Amino acid sequence: MTCPAPERLRSLSKQLSTQTSPDGVPTGLALLNKIGLTVNVWSGKQLLRSDFDEMRSFLDEAAAAGFGYAELGGCGLGVVMAGQVQRSRLAALRDSLADCPLRLTLHSAWFSSGRTGNLLDATSASVQYQGLRADLEVAAAIGAEVLVYHAGVLANRYSDGAELAAGMATEREQLRDLADEAGARGIMIAVENRAPTPAVLTRRSYGMRLDLVAEQVREIDHPQVSMCLDVGHAYLAASYLQYDYLAAVKAVAPLVGHLHFHDNFGRMAKQPEADAYELELLGEGDLHLPPGWGTIPLAEVLAVPYPREPAVIIEMRHARHYAEALETTRGMLTAPIRA
User: Fold this and answer.
1) pLDDT-derived band of residue 116, with 50, 70 and 90 as boundaries?
2) 332 Cβ neighbours under 8 A, 6+ residues apart
3) Which pLDDT score, from 0 to 100, does residue 276 have?
4) Cα 339 from chain centroid?
5) What is the CATH number of domain 38-333?
6) Mean pLDDT, rounded, for 69-88
7) pLDDT above 80: residue 85
8) Interval 138-172: pLDDT, tens
9) Whole-prediction pTM value?
């Protein structure tokens, strides 16, 4: 990873990190010190399950390049098994992260099947809850500031609105309980919006609509629960559901405590069984491209004031281009100064 003039970037970051809008709300410039990257099994850089040392080397490279945060993918760590923390594996993870120069967040163990990390499914909510409590324990053990949770889906693809409402109520109750524990450990839970993928479209879920995710967070009404705004998921959902993307982002901004940042072309995948390489060729689906490679108005997204000053986690494939992604993102954040 080539360092994009880190001293110049860190100096600029220090100068601008406290800037606010006239009404006292932090501007995008306040986020310069809070840009992070994901470390997971699909980012194309490291296989977490096999080699924590390789992961640590990558984190050190990222810190040298100027990143401030890293988000670890829980489903690739191999630390939670059968809903329980594997102690020796957790000890190895903690050892590998000792004195890590980056601030950390953790994405809960989640798969597109909805069989893990899914509190909306009332038929398995107790098991799902056990797994998320284990994720929370891992987050606390590594000093993570945020635990990301995907808005849930119903297991039964023929569920009706009443079942969805009941599932959302179950999810709220479980997240409140988890948030009490999270607060005691200094962790925020961030509920992430969903993309229109097969796992969502073939089941009932509220997660594609930013307004409904925001409403769920409001109704949970807990200081340790916020919204994780995934800008790529929202862009695809806005195209699919025909809502105004930037207007929706601005409406939920006060609740956003965490931000997933990546690019795509806003095109639904016409053949979901296509592999990632085919989808890239077609420019379809949730591609998780480096910022600037797609058509999302990312500079406008970053220009929105976010009162909670979320970390901006670049959640992308093509890990070789993280330094480029960092420079692009910083350029978007500092563009208003040059205007």
Assistant:
1) low
2) 28, 291, 298, 299, 302
3) 82
4) 30
5) 3.20.20.150
6) 90
7) yes
8) 999 999 999 999 999 887 766 788 989 999 999 99
9) 0.90
Give the position of tokens 């079942």: 163
Task: Reduce the secondary structure of the chain to three states and give it as a string.
Answer: CCCCCHHHHHHHHHHHCCCECCCCCECHHHHHHHEEEEECCCCCCCCCCCCHHHHHHHHHHHHHHCCCEEEEEHHHCCCEECCEECHHHHHHHHHHCCCCCCEEEEECCCCCCCCCCCCCCCCCHHHHHHHHHHHHHHHHHHCCCEEEEECCCCCCCCCCHHHHHHHHHHHHHHHHHHHHHHHHCCCEEEEECCCCCHHHHCCCCCCCCHHHHHHHHHHHCCCCEEEEEEHHHHHHHHHHHCCCHHHHHHHHHHHEEEEEECECCCCCCCCCCCCHHHHHHHCCCCCCECCCCCCCCHHHHHHCCCCCCCEEEECCCCHHHHHHHHHHHHHHHHHHHHC
Smallest Cα–Cα separation from 18: which of 7, 31, 8? 31
Domains of the chain, by residue range, sit at 38-333
**Does the pLDDT value for residue 257 go beyond 60?**
yes
Using the CB atoms, write b or e for 249-268: b if 16+ within 10 Å. bbebbebbbbbbbbbbbbbb
Measured distance CA(303)–CA(299) in Å, rounded: 6
